[in-house]
């Protein structure tokens, strides 16, 4: 399947999130949406990125951006693994990778090995910190993350297909798309999104 490109219509999907809510992409029309495809929920690279995003959920929403996180993991295991603090925005379990297929999210063992070699010191530091707890890899080991920003009309603004297992869309790119959202007059002094991951785990 060909990769999605800016200007393409974002494939619609319907799923139940881990809190039991029905998530339909078409219901988000009128809002800008960031969809992040992670690997499995216990992936340490994904945990670093997801931890950063969790700290900024309220800022994102106040500034006009909705977030949907998708994991190639079982819903029960996601609920067991994650804390309530981490479930502030919709989290969708897609253990059969149906939505991954719609969005042409890739697999690459080469990409996984690349991230292991390039980011090994960061990975080890994070895995032995209080921010991470070990878990089972219940999704594809070779999955590579991807991110999509979708506009208010359902078209893709940005498509980021990772080159390795640690490669998510840069915060600077997300921030860029936030700047051109027209905000209500009483929201011009909202704090900016944090630029640094927790515990200085910069990927």
UniProtKB/TrEMBL annotation:
E.C. code: 1.11.1.15
PANTHER family per the UniProt record, alphabetical: PROTEIN DIPZ, THIOL:DISULFIDE INTERCHANGE PROTEIN DSBE
Name of the protein: Thiol peroxidase, Bcp-type
Single GO MF annotation: peroxidase activity
Keywords: Oxidoreductase, Peroxidase
Class in the EC hierarchy, top level: oxidoreductase
UniProt xrefs under Pfam families: AhpC-TSA
InterPro entries: AhpC/TSA, Thioredoxin-like_sf, Thioredoxin_domain, Thioredoxin_ResA/DsbE_sf
Thioredoxin domain segment(s): 4-184
Segments passing through the bilayer: none
Family matches, as SUPFAM superfamilies: Thioredoxin-like
């Amino acid at each position: 399947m060909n990769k999605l490109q800016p200007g393409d219509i974002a494939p619609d999907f319907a799923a139940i999130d881990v809190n039991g809510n029905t998530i339909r992409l078409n219901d988000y029309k009128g809002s800008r949406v960031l969809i992040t495809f992670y690997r499995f929920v216990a992936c340490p690279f994904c945990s670093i990125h997801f931890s950063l995003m969790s700290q900024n959920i309220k800022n994102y929403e106040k500034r006009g951006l909705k977030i949907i996180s998708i994991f190639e993991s079982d819903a029960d295991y996601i609920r067991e693994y994650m804390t309530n603090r981490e479930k502030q925005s919709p989290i969708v379990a897609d253990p059969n990778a149906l939505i991954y297929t719609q969005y042409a999210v890739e697999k690459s063992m080469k990409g996984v090995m690349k991230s292991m070699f390039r980011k090994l010191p960061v990975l080890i530091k994070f895995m032995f910190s209080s921010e991470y707890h070990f878990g089972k890899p219940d999704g594809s080991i070779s999955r590579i993350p991807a991110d999509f920003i979708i506009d208010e009309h359902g078209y893709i603004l940005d498509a980021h297909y990772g080159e390795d297992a640690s490669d998510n869309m840069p915060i600077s790119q997300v921030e860029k798309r936030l700047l051109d959202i027209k905000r209500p007059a009483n929201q011009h002094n909202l704090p900016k999104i944090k630029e640094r991951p927790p515990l200085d785990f910069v990927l």
